[in-house]
Amino acid sequence: MLKTIDIHINGETLCVPENITILEAAKMHGIKIPTLCHFPDQRVKANCRVCVVEVEGNRNLVASCSTPVREGMKVRTNSARVRETVQTILELIFANHPQECLTCIRNANCELRQLAAEHGIREIKTDMSTPLLPLDNSTPSIVRDPNKCIKCGRCAEVCHQVQTTGILYSHYRGINGAITPEYGKTLAEVACVLCGQCAAVCPVGAIHEKDDTAAVWAALENPNKHVVVQVAPAVRVSIAEEMGQAPGTIAVGKLVTALRRLGFNKVFDTDFTADLTILEEGNELLQRLKNGGTLPMITSCSPGWIKFIEHNYPEQLAHLSTCKSPQQMFGALAKTYYAEKSGIDPKDIVVVSIMPCTAKKYECTRPEMKSSGYQDVDYVLTTREFGRMLRQSGVDFKALADGEFDNPLGISTGAGAIFCATGGVMEAALRTVYEVVTGKELAKLEFESVRGLEGIKEATVDLDGLPVKVAVAHGLANARKVMDKIQAGEADYAFVEVMCCPGGCIGGGGQPYVTKRETRMARMDAIYQVDENMPLRKSHDNPAVQQLYKDFLKEPLGEKSHHLLHTHYQKRGL
Amino acid sequence: MEKLRKAVGDIVSELGPEKGSLLAILLAVQDASPESYVSEEAVNEIARLLNTSRSMVYSTASFYSEISLMPRGRHIVRLCINAPCEDAGKEEIRKALEKELGIKLGETTQDKMFSLEGVSCLGACFMSPAIKVDDKVYGDLTPAGAVRVMRELKEAAKNEHIS
Amino acid sequence: MSTFRELDGYDRVFNFGNCDSSVSLSEYQQTGGYEALRMAIGNPKQALEEICRAGLRGRGGAAFPAGLKLKMMQGNTEKQRYIVCNADEGEPGTFKDRFIMNHIPFQLLEGLTIAAILAGAENGFVYIRHEYPLAQENIKRSIAEAEAAGLLGDNILGSEFSLHLKIFSGAGSYLCGEETALLSSIEGKKGRPRVKPPFPIEKGLWGKPTLINNVETLANIPAIIAKGSAWYRTLGTEDSPGTKLISLSGDVKKRGLYEVPFGTTFREIIENFGGGMKEVFDLKAVNIGGASGVVVPPEELDCPMEYGKCAERGITIGSGAVYVMDEQRSILGNVHNRVHFFLHESCGKCTPCREGLRQVNRIIDRVTAGEASLKDIENLERFTRCMQEASFCGLGQAAGNSLLSSLKYFREEYENSCVDCVEKTSERGELC
Description:
The structure holds three protein chains of three kinds. Chain B has helices spanning 2-15, 22-32, 40-50, 54-63, 83-87, 90-101, 143-162; strands at 75-80, 114-119, 131-133, 136-138. Chain B is an alpha+beta fold. Chain B has two domains: 2-63, 434 Repressor (Amino-terminal Domain) (Orthogonal Bundle); 75-162, 3-Layer(aba) Sandwich (Glutaredoxin), CATH 3.40.30.10. Helix content of chain C is 44%, strand content 12%. Chain C is built from 19 helices and nine strands. The model of chain C is unreliable at 428-432 (pLDDT under 50). Chain B binds chain C through residues 18-24, 26-27, 59-60, 63-67, 78, 81-84, 86-87, 119-128, 132, 135, and chain C through 89-95, 97-98, 130-134, 168-174, 185-192, 206, 247-251, 255-257, 287, 291, 321, 323, 325, 329, 333-334, 337-338, 340-341, 344-345, 347.
């Protein structure tokens, strides 16, 4: 049984579990203590100090996030002493922070601005100065504004512990301290994979997605352009959250209507090309198994992951499936197959993606992503940017009626939907590969062993007497572990799924604030619900995909596929 | 470049290719460098050998004031800038040194002979003002005395050059 | 009441011998050196009791009871443990550890070895600041000699105890004097403090229980064991037994390192050890405890150097640095120097210390330039209070000590330099 102790907060006696912090104890009893560096799922940093409280018997205030409770402890969270100190800390931060709240990208959800409001900061009583450090907008994905950085260290923790990309870290010391790549390099100059997890945890406007909404507005306004949009699987379980509803709210139909309201000519679905990916990738796997190709084969849907392996394991690129990601397959088909079918000159087609991801912004600019003769995908918006466009255009999201995706690139199955959760691509592939190999129908579609938030999941699937060992990793720290095993020749997997972000795309760097473990769970549960609700749940059952092969591609791994749907990789190194 | 890789490699294998050896490695690499600093190539090589990120190595290197990321002179002259030395005439010593060397605090002479740095307390407050030249501390210093120390070093270098 | 007491040879904890050289191993052993180690090996339990009874407290600044720390180490069941000697003497105005390492290395090593045996640590580091190359060399050489003599290494003096010691060089960071920052530094990281708890005795170096003690603390141990806690307690006071090494500098006749029994007043330290003021000028203020210490006026100097009494008076003994300023000296100049020091040495981890110092520095620059306003002085006080209340580590909390104490005792110097100081402006007749 959990042992409890009595502590006193603001004169109230509270019964709390032992071995927790003052901050946790206070939260349990509805007492809010401000925090800035604290982030769910991260280690305690205790460096912002806005969570200080008074503990009887202590000479100075203590940080509630790092101080464990003890029997009989007397705590005050709102004394004049605490209030003055917290206000002073906030004032000290503001005194060295750009005074641009009104125009800051985070003005609606900045944690610092929120604290200033809650703590009644009305005046900065000392001289304010703004450092004038150069902005880093060297990549298509992420913008870093070091002037706004409050040195909380959340981004560095994600970058080193969760992703092991090791790009952002705190350098120098004292007032010169800065969280940057080494030598103050830009993100383009280092092995950053542009996953945007740093942006997802930044409490202020110091790291954020590059905003491409203006370009999309311009395309929508242009009468000579036919603007089509594709929506990633993850967005259907996060856009409602972005618009103020609970995490895990499903909004497939409203999402379609919202996009139509914005003025897109066609509303298509990345789930369609997710299904297509399964057919190409599944066949590629079968071929490799049959012809003694490089195994394990590793999935290639996640552009952050691709950039990671190119930088960190340049000798292992043969393991990657040559399949493009669903986003890029979509772009290539939109400007060929769809252009042909609809009789629109591909030069007049603008392809916009709504993605949970910042790395996708970079992926669409990779030079090889021009199979149609044009840049296949023109603009990528994150879920957050999409939300911004909806708010700007006055869409009352909750009140929208359900709409239907357009044909043919809007037809999909449940297998395509689950692509956005860790284990989802694996599960979708197994559904198809099993049936193709065995010729039998699966009794149970759910492969529970590859679901869930465990870092590395392994399973062995029996393909009618042929045991196939598979592994699933999400978050690059886990991917690194799997890659080290593969590189050392110690992995006996046939097929490995890797997603760059923890939880998969539902936890992507472009998703609504704040993504923590519970949010990931809620979004995951929601996407499996979406899958269950679908009439078709296996990629090879997708009639539009079947039609595509019949009319256009002819066969999986065929010549057209090779040209439009497959790609190659680049040894980048560090 | 190859030479540097070898030098760094030797140091790392001697001190142990563990992250725990990082600070010792950085100091040793700096000591081995003719320009008394840790270059970017060295940072990258150390990161590779310790199997850690470059930013992690740089983070440690950039934190400590006795590690330089910029090339320095052959002799490093450290002027104590703390209160006891300050009050005992540090400013006069600084001016004399700057004039004699033709550089400002924090700079290196063009001939790469001297770097002049400030330092937080040399533990020589009983003989302030003090400077430390390479490993040797000079206390109870006058501006003229400081100049003399510099000239002796210049002289020694000249003789070395001739022989 | 005079408490002044010159120590004779027997009463000394430290015998620096001829201060121009290092006491050799044979010299040290001839004068009773390494007797204590033999006694501790023979009866470790009693050795620990002696340390506890002696009331030895940490000499690095925090004054934590050394015996208690050792007992806490013994309470831990983890096999792999470390001992770390904190020789990162960075507190400006302090040179005691440097003297110990340069002149009586074996006394330090003996104390360190005894502490390691009592703490159950078989591996250890002496973390010496990079600014002390000679001390590094001397300790390195002394470790080798002690090993060769069977006083260090495997099976010390034929016993089951072993201790493997290594030198670890700092690299120029005052903050590494903070014990957890020092541990991070040994682990190859930036010298930034870590969250406590867990304390180093629970989870220290590489997550293992680690005993960290200052050089002076460890060097006290041989005498305590060899001569006994009763003898030790004849020195100093009930509250603070033993002696303290005082680094005396500034405007006194005889600057230097003095072993001073606790209980001696600061005035006695200046008059009797330091020989009084150097010049004809009067004493204006004394900076006690280094940059992180306080600035006090002559009236405070009758306070005995003793932890309890000093705490009551708001005086921090700290590392034992005593810096004397005569009336020619500017308090503002001194504080300005201290603030610059901390600005340079703050690790930048926590907001109050980093941002507080940024603002305090700006204000103090203005104050010394005569451009500050009275409102600035208010802010100065508020920001410093915030640093003290909310900084992550002890060093940040102490960074404003000299500022706050000087504001307490010498406020008029600040106010007189303000542009809107009423008194000053009316003197000039500008307001009339």
